[in-house]
Amino acid sequence: QVQLVESGGGLVQPGGSLRLSCAASGTIGSLVSMGWYRQAPGKQRELVAVITLGVGTNYADSVKGRFTISRDNAKNTVYLQMNSLKPEDTAVYYCRADRIFAGSRSIYWGQGTQVTVSS
């Protein structure tokens, strides 16, 4: 099993910044990708950004140029730097990790962290 613990959410004014962190622990194996998704009230969960070993990064069009995903492999941690935040970025942000271990691929989710952008 892999446990994902997110931190860094909160309330910020439009135009502000936040940095989310997600630390993985447990039976890590190979975390082939780590990423962030978000879910706003009444909407489906959507991809925000993902970083995949040997491939690179991918972003939702709505956050390109404002958000940056990065990863510290030594710490099994993924970060999401969010700049120029907009009210429409308000959502619960979830960390996701795709693990390969003993020949099997598994998906793990964090518990979510609330990001609210409001004046």
Number of strands: 11
Number of helical segments with 4 or more residues: 0
The best one-word shape is elongated
Unreliable segments of 5+ consecutive residues: none
What structural class results from the helix and strand content?
mainly beta
Helix content: under 10%
Residue-averaged pLDDT: 95
Series of H and E elements: EEEEEEEEEEE
Question: How would you sum up the major sheet?
Answer: 7 strands, mixed
In angstroms, what is the radius of gyration? 14 Å
> Could you tell me how far the N terminus lies from the C terminus, measured between alpha carbons in angstroms?
40 Å
Q: Estimate what percentage of residues fall within beta strands.
A: over 45%
